[in-house]
Amino acid sequence: MSFNELFTEVFFLQTEHIRITDPQAQEGTLLRAAEILRSGGLVVFPTETVYGLGGDGTRDEAAKKIYAAKGRPSDNPLIIHIASPADAEKYAYTNPTYEKLASAFMPGPLTVILPKRENIPTSTTGGLDSVAIRCPSHPVAHRLIELCGFPIAAPSANLSGKPSPTCSAHVAQDMDGRVNMIIDGGESEVGLESTIVKIDGDRLTILRPGGITYDALCMVCEHVTVADAVLHQLKDGERPLSPGMKYRHYAPTAPLVLLKGEVDAVLTFLQNEQNQKRCAILCYDEEIAHLHPDKLFPIGARADLAAQAHTLFHALRDADRTDAEIIYAHLPPMDGLGLALYNRMIRAAAHTVLEV
Ligand code: AMP
Ligand code: MG
Predict the structure, then answer these.
(1) Where are the domains of the chain?
(2) In whole angstroms, how large is the CA radius of gyration of the chain?
(3) Which residues contact 349 (CB under 8 A, 6 or more apart)?
(4) Residue 155 CA: which ligand 1 atom is closest?
(5) Most buried pick, 112, 221, 268, 335, via CB within 10 A?
(6) Ligand 1 pocket check: which of 76, 162, 190 to mutate, most ligand atoms within 8 Å of Cβ?
């Protein structure tokens, strides 16, 4: 396919929008979605982490179309989605550590990196000889993959550089006209992308923290480490373990500043700033009553990390649509689900942390 053909095919599409509440009762619609994927088209589908921009994971052109639709560099590999944990063996060389992880966490928000088999093209894996595999638990995603009979390659369904979409309205903002179909399956439950682990024998390296926490992985595997790039900026010329780590992730138009300090000190700081600047604030629920309601985006109770994960990307999109000159948020804790929040927020803030 020439560049012009590819361009015309992914930027001037008539996108069909459908809503699926009951995958069993609406199987006919899902069959149509599977048919689109089988003939090389793109379908956005809901998962429990974020929405995925799907194409046939065994086809070279599908991967190229996904990269074009997202505006994503083609050396940033895609995750392939399977219907059952046992299917991993068809596309990768699995091992006993994989079996342990699969029985503990799959289906669910965990992606594993394994050596790939021949049937997965290098265009899907960004030229690597390993492949990222996930088995989603969302019933719509599950049934769609089952009906396809091939793995669905799917990155998050946002334009490169935007926050991952957690509802179909956010998908439509980015993908209308670029994909054949968008399936609305409600709000994503987890709200952050999957945990990615690289498996080397009985050792795991967390390349991206997510819904499956470090502590949960340690219950199943003895040797778990967190890749440096999860928490720190890459040094000049440093080669990351995962190509995605080197790309600039979502950064809001107004600078995002993360606040670190005692509860009362941070609140007093925010109250003062609100009176002096046009600021948007991603606050905890407990702070709502103490701040001006204008440009306030509550992300959940202070101790409720699951609620914060669920709401973060939605709140960031909303905050970015205001006329704020600066966006403030709390620096998340680094334990439990906090590590995933920390990883996403520290990147969105370009590592800007203010101690108050
Ligand atoms: P997304 O598709 O937006 O959820 O991002 C997928 C992430 O998985 C990217 O950051 C990739 O760098 C990472 N990834 C996918 N495949 C591999 C692989 N074979 N080795 C290392 N990282 C991978
Ligand atoms: Mg993404």
Answers:
(1) 3-230, 256-355
(2) 20
(3) 255, 256, 257, 258, 329
(4) 2
(5) 112
(6) 76
> What residue spans of 71-177 are helical by DSSP H?
88-91, 96-105, 139-148, 168-175
Residues with Cβ < 8 Å from 353, sequence gap 6 or more? 257, 258, 259, 260, 331, 346
**pTM listed for this prediction:** 0.94
What letter does residue 332 receive in the DSSP assignment?
P
Superfamily of domain 256-355 in the CATH hierarchy: Threonylcarbamoyl-AMP synthase, C-terminal domain (3.40.50.11030)
Distance CA 144, CA 152 (A): 9
- Cβ neighbours for 347, distance < 8 A, ≥ 6 positions apart: 248, 249, 250, 251
The torsion of the CA quartet 297, 302, 304, 307, rounded to 10 degrees, works out to 10
DSSP 57: T
User: Cβ distance 284 to 299 under 8 Å?
Assistant: yes
Indicate the top mutation candidate among 74, 113, 162 to test ligand 1's pocket, ranked by most ligand atoms within 8 A of CB.
Answer: 113
CA 94 vs CA 70, 101, 105, 170, 239: distances in Å: 30, 11, 15, 35, 26
Work out which ligand 1 atom sits closest to the CA atom of 164.
Answer: 3
Q: Ligand 2 centroid vs 155 CA: distance in angstroms?
A: 6
- Tens of pLDDT, residue by residue over 224-263, are 999 988 988 777 677 667 766 655 578 888 999 999 999 9
* Residue 323: C-alpha distances to residues 68, 223, 252, 253, 278 (Å): 30, 47, 12, 10, 7
Domain covering 3-230, topology: DHBP synthase (3.90.870)
Residues in the chain: 356
What are the pLDDT digits (tens) for 302-315? Answer: 999 999 999 999 99
